[in-house]
Amino acid sequence: MNREVDTSKAVEIAEGIYWVGFHDESAGFHCNPYVILDGKEAVLIDPGSIPHYPLVLNKVVSVVELPRIRYIIAHHQDPDLCATIPKFEEVINRPTSVVTHTRASVLIAHYGLKSDFYAVDQKDWQLTLQSGRRLRFIFTPYLHFPGAFVTYDEKTKTLFTSDLFGALSFDWHLYAGEYYIEGMKAFHENYMPSREILAASMRKLKKLDIKLIAPQHGSLIDENILEYIEALENLECGDYMFYQD
Ligand SMILES: [Fe+2]
Ligand SMILES: [Fe+2]
Q: What's the pTM value of the predicted model, to 2 decimals?
């Protein structure tokens, strides 16, 4: 069963955490930006692409005063999550830090940013907000970028997974339904490089106490979390290797 939610508005998916994406009926591959509100600070996660900017900005403004945004997490350098960072910098209009891996920062700099970088690999893989709330970063190398990582919010036990746990589907719902796992596998089979690489990171994620998986594509997973992790742990992927030229 898919739970129906009013996706025309920002949706609170955990205490103080908002999904600020939109239902694009023409897309088989949705982008999901998020905002974490924490006291006087806010964190914007994977803000998104240029065509999505007006809609995403409206949703962000509906949940947070822009100058409160202190950090922008960019899980890697792709345009579907980074292209609007310079636009957000303009409207936030105060110094922000872009939280990413050093390897991604080298590429993200090409978008022409003003922010400084907070390199997770040089900061003990964590960020502590003013309130003391800790975000932990878990390295998921080569999934799908060498410097890929995911973000774990200790307070709500939400895991922001970037491209991991994303899915392809024209029948999109904010929360994963019974067919989600098939769309998720289809995406990972050719997007992620190898079973060995995928399984190694899934073993790390299994050690976390996760209440909610919030991917950058597809749907939120808040039930049977272990089943989804194990589906990826056991998945044969890298299948472009076997396509005919
Ligand atoms: Fe990506
Ligand atoms: Fe992506």
A: 0.97
